[in-house]
């Protein structure tokens, strides 16, 4: 079951560059695992913004919330979720 | 080069059901061709709305505009374009 | 799997009172069936607006889109869908 | 008398993880009591957000304000209240 | 139980000046009755707009919806309802 | 001359509970005086928000600004002012 | 007593060029009279828009509403009114 | 050449009352000079807000930016600029 | 003196394809002349929209309004004007 | 390939005037280099705001993101990117 998300990240000013680097390393690992499992089908940087679009493939709304809230940077993210259905013109 | 789009369709009230059916058939063919050529990488219905998200892969901004403005329903669409870059956490 | 929706209805000015009454009768039947099947868990009028909140319980995003787009008044509705997950404080 | 609410929680950056855990424990108890009394008919997590939808059943606007402002996290919440009426198509 | 409302009126272009005059006469009577019954505590024109603020005093959300949807111009109104509670600083 | 206002209060995070209590006591006195003078005709809590609607009756725009900017909590308020005129359907 | 307004004009599509010319002539006369009476202190075109800013000087909110609703094009205007007070830095 | 501006001031929480008083005194002088030079034709407080509307008369866009960015409080202002042209109904 | 504009075009539904073609031909000539005169320094299509960004170089606000309101499609345009000043980092 | 951008800069309150001056010097050098390379075709200050419009000419979306995220002040910028195509009326 597919969902399009947009995630915008805003770090609080008190975080040091080291803190942020740690978050980014953990995020890369977490995101990579989700991609290898097929739960993230694609993730793209939005040009000029600290934000991404990602396409999730999960079984349930609950699973999606669990996956999203497990992102290391989740406390600093604003997430917008758009549920997707099959498009009648899609050839897949 | 990738772009995420959101297209919302609103038909003017004077269009008949037959007119709309003709538009939809032409749209399906046009969209199918773009998918077969790889210029649309994915197209998804937004649940509950006469709208879609689509992922385009084209060479230039000009090509994207040409492709979008060629949709049979283009005069009735509101299109929002988001340019995408490679995400550092993407494994592809 | 639960979703909260908000549906706002706007009839085009050319619809007669009779047309609207027909739509409303068909809508009542369609909505009643969904409630009896348990796919709508609750539907409430928003005070002062031709709009409602409804709580849907369906298996998939695709099923939700099929159910929503089957409403007789769907062409005149603006629908906003919010996917829901279990709340950690819910006692149910 | 029914009301739909949406509550969004934002903690100020100076709160420690312990402070937040205390708030969450008190919140769980407070929310559980309201559910057992029937004053909250349902509460759901909004997927991907630190937010919920809840359905309240209380006697008056004043009672609703008293209940909402009693939430332990109320100072950190943004609450939107939508008064509900019986929907003509509801079978309940 | 008090509610503040804002009502904005937009007539469709096909209504004649006579139609509008009839609506306005019926509206005046309907509104006057609600004021005499005490269900409208005050109604004020918003300067420069075809809109008003009104203060309603009714028993329930359902009664408020019934009263609002009974306005002759209701099909041409956009209504925003704000539930009110006693203010701790009010001396009444 | 009447004006509807909406005031939203946001305290900065560094204010202590004691500071806030002092503000609230001064606010209660200030607001009470305005009500006894008839310059505030009514003040109501907006359910679920640290906000109010108030109906002011003053002689001039300048007097209204002086009264509003004299509120002890004014530096922490966002105020929206709507000038009101007599409504043709008002029976008062 | 001063108010800043912004008026945006939108003519319905069925109005002919002649109708519009008649409206514009009546508007010019009405606006000119208000300026000669000093009730409009200044009126300026907003560059690139069929809109203006005007500065009104009237005795009361009621007078302002009467003046605004008397504009020949009032039914086609969207008006936003901002009440003004003396600025402490104004040298006038 | 005329421009309407709206300036909203927000002081950061760390500024002391003394700091603010110094800013206000410098602002009064700066604003007074611009008025005496005729570069500000009028400045008005927006009722209930720490904001003003001002009417500027300068030679160029560059001059306007220089004047605006020279305000002592400029770092704490949000400024909106609307270029004005002669209105065909203006009698001046 | 430079201004950035964004123009969005919406044709009313009653215009025929021929009417639109006539407008487009007149628009092309008008726009071309402005470019040859240097009053338009650049004009670009916004991808996926019937809209453009253009950079104007004119002497005054009044001249800009005259030029904009002279576009054949002006009655069907929504125009947003942003006055520009020299940027301190510009090397031109 | 062209893109119009709007960049708004907001410095966090803890930055000193010296810190800001360092950022501005580095920004000037970075921006100057991009202009000399032709990757920025023009950059303009938005009057009254700490913001600019810039016109970029780059090969790909990825290059644009790399260039934008390399700005020394990027962490303090909000950037909006609009992809541009050739306008049919452009004479260039």
From TrEMBL, chains A, B, C, D, E, F, G, H, I, J:
Q: Subunit structure, briefly?
A: Homodecamer.
Read off the Pfam families from this record.
MIase (PF02426)
Reaction catalyzed = (S)-muconolactone = (4,5-dihydro-5-oxofuran-2-yl)-acetate
- E.C. code: 5.3.3.4
Protein known as:
Muconolactone Delta-isomerase
Keywords, sorted A to Z: Aromatic hydrocarbons catabolism, Isomerase
Task: Name the pathway.
Answer: Aromatic compound metabolism; beta-ketoadipate pathway; 5-oxo-4,5-dihydro-2-furylacetate from catechol: step 3/3
- Domain of life (superkingdom): Bacteria
**Family assignment?**
Belongs to the muconolactone Delta-isomerase family.
Query: What NCBIfam families does the record point to?
Result: muco_delta
